[in-house]
Amino acid sequence: MTGPGRRSSTFTRLLRHGFTDPSAAERLLDSAELVPVRDDPVLLEALGATADPDLALLGLVRLLEAQPGATARRELLDTVIAAKPLRDRLLGVLGASAALADHLARHPRDWEALVTYEPRDLHPGVEEFERGLAEASDLVSLRVAYRRCLLSIAARDVCGTTGIAETAAELADLATATLRAALALAEAAAPDDAAACRLAVIAMGKCGGHELNYVSDVDVIFVGEAADGADESKALKSATRLASHMMRICSETTVEGSIWPVDANLRPEGRNGPLVRTLSSHLAYYQRWAKTWEFQALLKARPVAGDLELGKEYVAAVGPLVWKAAERENFVADVQKMRRRVVENIPAAEVERELKLGPGGLRDVEFAVQLLQLVHGRADPSLRSGTTLDALQALAAGGYVGRADAVQLDEAYRFLRSMEHRIQLYRLRRTHLVPEDEADVRRLGRSLGLRADPVAELTREWKRHAAVVRRLHEKIFYRPLLDAVAQLAPGEARLSPEAARERLVALGYADPAAALRHLEALASGVSRKAAIQRTLLPVLLGWFADSADPDAGLLNFRKVSDALGKTPWYLRLLRDEGAAAENVARVLSAGRLAPDLLMRAPEAVALLGDGDGGGLEPRGRAHLEQEILAAVGRAENAAQGVTAARGVRRRELFRTAAADIVDSYGTEANPAEADQGALVDRVGGAVSDLTAATLAGTLRAVVRAGWGDTLPTRFTIIGMGRFGGHELGYGSDADVLFVHEPQDGVEEREAADAANKVVAEMRRLLQLPSADPPLLIDADLRPEGKSGPLVRTLKSYEAYYRRWSLTWESHALLRAEPVAGDEDLARRFIELIDPLRYPDGGLGDEAVREIRRLKARMESERLPRGADPKLHTKLGPGGLSDVEWTVQLLQLRHGRREPGLRTTRTREALAAARDAGLISAEDAAILDEAWVLATRVRNAVMLVRGRAGDTFPSDARELAAVGRYLGYGPGHAGDMLDAYRRTTRRARGVVEELFYQD
What we know:
With 998 residues, the chain is mainly alpha-helical. The chain is built from 44 helices and ten strands. Helix 35 (748-767) links the parallel strand 7 (734-742) and strand 8 (777-778). Helix 18 (331-344) packs antiparallel against helix 19 (362-376), helix 26 crosses helix 29 (580-588) and helix 31 packs antiparallel against helix 32. The radius of gyration is 38 Å and the shape is elongated. The termini are far apart. The model is unreliable at 1-6 (pLDDT under 50).
């Protein structure tokens, strides 16, 4: 009987040795099986050295209980106490793996597999594992033999006899031996099938790369050929039966569980394709249909079972195709898109615990290494390893990756793989999630040698290594380009000019020689500017490569840098303000308009930061007008005043365009804006407010210079068309009407002369050649069109509309809204036209027919010759004109009765018509979607080309840039055009029903 003092002493010793439940441990130590060694200090020390002493002790007791008799128990205990290698191996496994403890309890003599400690046992290969599986004759015995081999691998792993790379290689060799044993069983069950065909099993993924996990699907591809004299179609059926049976042998659940699933979904056409193909069929598929990711997967291809000669022929045949993959269009973008898709598919609740697929995880390292292998492996055979760490070492040796970066990535990858292995080893379950339970995290930390504070230490080390991977996984692709041109590390291997060119071409640069010159200019030297740019460029190059025109992005960055590089705030902006550098990269590579606006006044780059530059939020009209009028007030003459107004307009156009680009592309911190309508409204409202403020400032400057404080006539400007509807695009003219009314006591001729002089001077000053974009004023919607007077008095408008007004003029007045000038006069003008645009009783039948005739004539006469009508955003079927005229017909017919329709804005009027029951919710949504999309396309064309257009660009790179703005990835321009046609076709169906039918 144990006294209280003795118990207290044991309890304390157990705590000191790492037991978390000393009471339970004490009871186990008091069990009959352990009585002979209960007080042996060697046992307690050995248990305390394991990952989980409680688990190891429980496993040892279970193993002793399972022994067939007292003699076997004594033999086991004697060996455990006397033989340190066996003790460390056995207790190490029992403390790290509950699943292998279960196996030992079911097969109590398998502990003897850990006794041998010879050189050939320390590093077994396929042959040794084949011997270990040789006696397996069915599914159950194969599983038992497999676990016995796995036991020896785990023992070497947890004791540190083998490192992570050796352990992963042994697991792949065991998988190879297992596949061979399974195929042998399948062939023995169907000798006729085996005789009729040649079947090669090609390992893919981690098995093919000789870097397998403890628990993982084993990816394979099957290649079959007819045996001599056999019919090919029958041979392929035989090969398919053998392959299917082999897969079932490995994956079926028995009383001993399963081994692992064999996954053949990497084959051509995936699960929809035939399980077994001939070599020629494989080649035909890869030459014609394969996607980029399939060549990336083939990096790991390795023949492992079946007809190894046929397997070698397969690898030799597909190899040249793999090393040409980097020449494919959008190669890098495709690989990076695949990586992003993997991350996006992780459940939100798991992303922070995801060791393999999450940001800074194992897949980031693997993707980065594979990308570099595919780019440079064609010219450098030393890079053609399927093993990640070997390939990383080769990349560093060849100068394709900086040595310091490679060392950090190697260290991080080994640590993360070790975590993954120990997590899976515990239950032998396929998982890549770091556990949440503290006891599990503690065991994991101790298994990796972190003993002082396992939970805190493991969390800290894991986060540190993940941060390294996040920082380096893309940087390693770009950093060597800078080293190649700036010669930053003398004596270190660097990219050759040809390798640098290959990498830039793979990234999408059309002129790699020019790109290298820009990089050299930006990164060379010892100045603070060069040092900061060297730090930023690896990241910026990645963002440029994500655009449709990386060359333009890099060139524009060099221009901005040349203009502002000596300005302290510019370098500080890029270095310190989180979003600024990415915003700069997005804006400079998205097309011509925003960079052109920026180059005219590079200091506007401050708007792209987070600080005091104002950010990218559009300014309201009142704010803009106040700033412009203040600048005009300070000017010495009208020309100076209008120059100041145009300068504000240029800056604000840049702000609006930059915000539009950033919101459309999204950033690492904020995804792209999902509400396309909100993007359109934001641009239309911002540009319309800016145009109104510019006209107000110009009007003030002209009046002040010519007449002082008071013009002889009251004067107002009415916005029309898209301007009046708050729907201006980047390249839109300002459609207006000019209205005046003589001041009291002023002759009508004098007032008219003054009004005409004001208009002429405004138009002249806003179009003068300068660094600022011109603002064209279009007054063609006035009464009598181009034939009528440019400016009319309110009375003249009243007389004209009363006597001569045509239906199209009432139609045009739906968009009329005051934008600048005398507010009282503007109000009275609106009161004058309201009965015309919202007529009592709606439109008569003749007026409706007239509008339909006008619409039909416009479609036939105005569409440019040679243009594809289905892709014309303004006049094409389902385009802007179709939607707007349909909505405006509803306004003319029902505006008097439905106050919600009395708006100049298309989307507001459409929503009001829906709410009033004039159009179904479904039809309204179809029209809205088409209108928003067509407007977005027009905005995109202007942003990309720097000039307005109503059709998609014909140039492939410009078309890709429009697609990128609209949310389509590289290589998906065709999908964008199909989606546009589909959307507008639906809209045209609604238009024909609502506009053309009574």
